Amino acid sequence: MDSTGRNTSARQSHVVLGAGPAGSALAGELARRGHTVRLVSRSRPAGGVPQGVTWREGDVGAVEGARAAMAGAAVVYHCVNVAYHLQVEAMPGIQDAVLGAVEAEGARLVVLDTLYPYGPTGGEVMTEDTPWRATGAKGRMRAALDARYLAAHQEGRARVVLGRSADFAGPGVLNSTLGGAVFPGALTGGEVVGLGDVDLPHSYTDIRAVAAGLATLGERPEGDGRVWHLPTAPARTTREVFTMIEERVGRPLKVTVMPEPRPFGPFDQVFMDAYAELFYQHTEAQVMDSGAFQDAFAARPVPLGDTLDAALDWYRALLAGTGREPAVR
């Protein structure tokens, strides 16, 4: 029994909510670390269920569904996301359900978070101490959610920790500015799109480092009650990243620079209309520092070159018809 009278003896499993690239990578990482892992999503993962992981269909948009999804869990990982144009409406309700179920079940909660609460920074390096100055609806919504998560922890209603990631990159990542808009064109000689000012530094977090970082937070409760930046390689300019890709594919990239939001690649008009308020991320430096996490947990980011190598390998397989397109973030 714990201090609230709940029976904790059966809580031995790790439950991952959401089967996009981050949730699926995390589930596989937890299984490799020897944990019993259940991956829960509304539909079966498009990229397949990772080895050693049990998949269960579930909808965590209501408390009943969330409690069913996380029954018996020691640690719950919230990696659920929805389409950009639905986030402001949908994400608070999902939080209500997940946080309410975690409080009732007595499990720890690890939340995958974004940089959106910081809002425009004028290009300053973002640390966990950077003020939350979001001006757009999505950033303000994310900041409000995060404040509520931290309040639940501070008030003793739940044990919560947040892991923030920069833009995803790496194998299995399609819906990212370093994803489906870049690698297919790089490999086939087609169009490669760069957003905003391609001479500004921009941070990318390898999806495998996202998974490893969240798994570490799930294993290390001494990190609870705060925000952590997940291990992220030093930022490079978009132009430098494209040069690194050119060296790997052996041809110049046909780069189209898009100075303002418009549909391209995997991103349609609906997506870009919803993303427009976040386009400042490409018109000012976007640099995330993850030194605090690296020092506290003796972790290191995946080098950017390794990220690009793994992404190119994955996209080669995808284009050859031997890879499976994942659910997108």
Automatic annotation (TrEMBL):
The record, for Pfam families, names: Epimerase
Query: Where is the organism placed in the taxonomic lineage, from the top?
Result: Bacteria, Bacillati, Actinomycetota, Actinomycetes, Kitasatosporales
Instruction: Describe the location of the NAD-dependent epimerase/dehydratase domain by residue ranges.
Output: 16-221
Q: Which InterPro entries match?
A: Epimerase_deHydtase (IPR001509), NAD(P)-bd_dom_sf (IPR036291)
> Which SUPFAM superfamilies would you find in this protein's record?
NAD(P)-binding Rossmann-fold domains (SSF51735)
The name on file for this protein is: Epimerase
**Superkingdom, according to UniProt?**
Bacteria
